[in-house]
């Protein structure tokens, strides 16, 4: 599968979200990455199910919901009605990972497992055959604008080596200060999906369109 781009919708202009969705669609964005935060697992709050339902009705771009919450089972029920393509949850908060995966699948949604920068790769290895995607955080979840954590690169390479010898390989998504520079640092271990936020897409550093900024990203991916 070709590399895909997900746009982090929490970084968009919230006062003009309909216009933002049109611009993202024109740019060929593959997924809308939606961070759901409960103020407990991370010290921030975002995004409600009713707001995301309105987003879903306003665009044909598939939703990729990231649960940065302490109670994924509760939030799966809340967001399943939106019918996203993916729901990811954090392994760090789960006592029963298979139950969470099964709950997501029961709604015919693709389960994904998220991994913080400091969490050892080994904790998700038992579940690689059961999920559709691994969300590898390159910053700690909660806030935009953090520095890319270089230590994650070795973890990314290690995961790819494991999956290369595995009969089944879930997709790998990376999220956290992803831009042309940090993508260049991943040139030997490119993931399947890049989540773009303030660093690469939703900024005012130039007068380029989202489509033009994506072209810049693609040029780095294909280098």
TrEMBL record:
InterPro entries: Aldolase_TIM, Ribul_P_3_epim-like, RibuloseP-bd_barrel. Pfam families: Ribul_P_3_epim. Keywords: Isomerase, Metal-binding. The keyword Isomerase applies. NCBIfam families: PRK05581.1-4 (NF004076). This is Ribulose phosphate epimerase.
């Amino acid at each position: 599968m070709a590399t895909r781009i997900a746009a982090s919708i929490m970084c968009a202009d919230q006062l003009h979200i309909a216009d933002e969705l049109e611009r993202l669609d024109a740019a060929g964005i593959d997924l809308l990455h939606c961070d759901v935060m409960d103020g407990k697992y991370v010290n921030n709050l975002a995004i409600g199910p009713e707001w995301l339902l309105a987003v879903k009705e306003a665009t044909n771009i598939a939703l990729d919901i990231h649960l940065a919450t302490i109670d994924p089972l509760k939030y799966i029920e809340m967001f399943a009605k939106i019918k996203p393509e993916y729901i990811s949850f954090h392994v760090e908060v789960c006592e029963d990972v298979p139950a969470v995966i099964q709950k997501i699948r029961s709604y015919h949604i693709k389960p994904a497992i998220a991994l913080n920068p400091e969490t050892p790769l080994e904790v998700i290895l038992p579940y690689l055959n059961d999920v559709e995607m691994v969300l590898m955080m390159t910053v700690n979840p909660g806030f935009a604008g953090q520095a890319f954590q270089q230590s994650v690169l070795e973890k990314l390479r290690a995961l790819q080596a494991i999956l290369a010898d595995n009969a089944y390989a879930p997709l790998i998504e990376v999220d956290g200060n992803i831009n042309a520079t940090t993508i260049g640092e991943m040139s030997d271990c490119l993931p399947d999906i890049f989540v773009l936020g303030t660093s690469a897409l939703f900024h005012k550093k130039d007068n380029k369109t989202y489509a033009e900024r994506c072209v810049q990203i693609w040029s780095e991916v294909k280098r």
